Amino acid sequence: MKISKYKHNSDISYTLGITLTIELLKHKPDRVKMVFLHSSLTNGEGYSCIAKLAEEHSIPIEYNDKVFNILSQKENCFAIGVFEKFENPVNERENHILLVNPSNAGNMGTIIRAAVGFNMSNIVVIKPGTDIFDPKTVRSSMGAVFSINFQYFDTFEEYKENFSNHALYPFMLNAKSSLECAQFKEPCTLIFGNEATGLPEYFSKEGTSLIISHSNKIDSLNLPVAASIAMYELTKGNF
Amino acid sequence: MKISKYKHNSDISYTLGITLTIELLKHKPDRVKMVFLHSSLTNGEGYSCIAKLAEEHSIPIEYNDKVFNILSQKENCFAIGVFEKFENPVNERENHILLVNPSNAGNMGTIIRAAVGFNMSNIVVIKPGTDIFDPKTVRSSMGAVFSINFQYFDTFEEYKENFSNHALYPFMLNAKSSLECAQFKEPCTLIFGNEATGLPEYFSKEGTSLIISHSNKIDSLNLPVAASIAMYELTKGNF
Questions:
Q1: Which of A194, B136, B139, B205 has the greatest number of CB atoms lying within 10 Å of its CB?
Q2: Which residue ranges does chain B devote to CATH 3.40.1280.10?
Q3: Domain made up of A96-235: CATH architecture
Q4: Are B221 and A117 within 8 A, CB to CB?
Q5: Which CATH class is domain B12-84?
Q6: Is the pLDDT reported for residue B223 higher than 90?
Q7: Is the ipTM of this complex over 0.90?
Q8: Do A117 and B142 touch (CB under 8 A)?
């Protein structure tokens, strides 16, 4: 199998690390093509877990240190899972997180991790947007990317046509209401803009715009922080 | 002035970027030794703002592209502020965020940004902990690091002796109460552990331990996400 650096247009992606590879094997064994192990990983809990799961699902394991030089900049990476990308459409009866043009892979992964934490496992991305299968997203999601539904749309209009049953809550700095006073109708869609630019002004006419009120000493909250606070407020009391 | 890569034991640090350098000049002009500009930055809003602030405070500006090669890996860095590190003890009448052995500079900066956003600008770090003046922390704080009080302590015991008036709220996965039900006494201290290991078990005997309840599909929330949700809940209604 020929291994090359991750590309967005490739059909395969990678889990870089033992824990991530275990999450992949647990949640998406049918998508795993193979697992590479580093020559220094021959025993221990991580090794046993990977070996057991790979055997269970008849997934080949290969020792190949060169692959680690190609795919991982980190020295502490000892296992790499190779998986085929997959589709997993969002559920129309459940709440959604919708990200308009998110640009940072690490942020996307952090949002996915929190989303799974708050049982909000339906993520929508309006293009252009960072790649959900980028190994950096996979890593910062801590493997949560393997348990979500997600869908990309070319435009917000297209999303709305498909999910007209959803109450919309765009998060904007000039919003009408404050998050803490929101009365959510469900199923709903929490909408967040790009890290640098936020949401385009026309979103203020969509549903009920909300702000997470804060002091004027900062311009805005970090995107994963804002999205996570919103998910916390929407779902609190559920756990 | 001799410029070398940032070191934790150095007396000086750097702001890498136009926006950060402007924040530095606005909030801590007395600590700025000089500003380096890249030869491609000769006009525009950022240039004018830096030039005006530097003149106001008699801070030297130098064009020197070599410095950018030494200090910045990013191609879009056109201004660098050189500043002396400073101390700014926390206020005993105000609420605190206390981080026990935080290990990631980017996370620390993200927490500082949210802390300033929620008017919780007193940050305590129990050593060993990442360096608040690391250029990565400065960057991810978006310059908020220049408007906080902060203090490092060798041990948590030492902190407690100095701030016995603070109600303690350690955030732990095996906590007694859930955040959403917390009745905070103020001034208080919200306490968070290391990214990988959380808080040592003995913190469950300190004050009222709290959990941000979430599904069992993830092990824990990302540290800046958890700290920001806690600050949001504590301060909501204040803005």
A1: B139
A2: 96-235
A3: 3-Layer(aba) Sandwich (3.40)
A4: yes
A5: alpha beta
A6: yes
A7: yes
A8: no
